[in-house]
Amino acid sequence: MYSAGAMKLYIRQSDQHGQGVFASMPIASGEAIIVFTGPLLHRSEVDFGDYHLQIGEELYLGPSGSADDYINHSCHPNSGFRDGLTLYALRDIAAGEEITWDYSTAIDEEDFPGFPCACGAPGCRGTVRSFRHLLPDVQARLRPLLLPYLNSRYFRD
Questions:
Q1: Which CATH number belongs to the domain containing residue 80 in this structure?
Q2: Over the chain, what HEC string results?
Q3: Is the pTM of this model over 0.70?
Q4: Over the stretch 44-89, which tens digit does the pLDDT of each residue have?
Q5: How many domains does the chain divide into?
Q6: Counting CB atoms within 10 angstroms of each CB, which of 39, 52, 106, 116 has the fewest?
Q7: Residue-level pLDDT at 16
Q8: CA 9, CA 33: separation in Å to the nearest integer?
Q9: CA angle 143, 147, 151 (to 5 degrees)
Q10: Distance from C-alpha of 20 to C-alpha of 12, rounded to nearest angstrom
Q11: Region 11-36: what's the mean pLDDT?
Q12: Residue 143 lies in a domain
């Protein structure tokens, strides 16, 4: 399952990393792009070599077999989460443009070693890291894009 905008997405080779998800037609700023799905897993059940999304301290979504498994990271993404597992366009996205989101808005593992970032965006942080290991100004900038469990953990207001 993609979402209501499923017909606006396709998967192909990405210049950034492996497969990627691209807009087949324009997507308007604020438009829902895709809902992340997959089997609910405890951390002990996760194959960290496979697609997964952390949605709680010890809770993950495993691979869905759909487009959400192939959306790549960017330090300057064109989409982000808003109050749940739905990815929304942060700005207008052109047909043919790759859909990206910032992986640090979901990862919060103490022992996550991070990995080199290949996004190529201006201001690239160079490494994808756990939210907890980001500088305070980066955390504040990413706050509106956090999954709910991170927002409640780090911003209790």
A1: 2.170.270.10
A2: CCCCCHHHEEEEECCCCCEEEEECCCECCCCEEEECCCCEEEHHHCCCCCCCEECCCCEEECCCCCHHHHCEECCCCCEEECCCCEEEECCCECCCCECEECHHHCCCCCCCCCEECCCCCCCCCCEECCHHHCCHHHHHHHHHHCCHHHHHHHCCC
A3: yes
A4: 999 988 999 999 999 999 999 999 999 999 999 999 998 899 999 9
A5: 1
A6: 116
A7: 76
A8: 8
A9: 50
A10: 6
A11: 93
A12: yes
Q: What is the rounded distance in angstroms from the CA atom of residue 4 to the CA atom of residue 18?
A: 25
**Is a pLDDT exceeding 90 seen at residue 42?**
yes
| Inside any domain, residue 75 | yes
CA nearest to 37, candidates 22, 23, 55: 55
Query: Which domain does 138 fall in, by range?
Result: 6-154
Closest CA to 27 of 101, 126, 98, 75: 98
Q: Which long-range contacts (CB under 8 A, 24 or more apart) does 95-98 make?
A: 95/23, 95/24, 95/25, 95/26, 96/22, 96/23, 97/22, 97/23, 98/14, 98/15, 98/16, 98/20, 98/21, 98/22, 98/72
The pLDDT mean for the chain works out to: 92
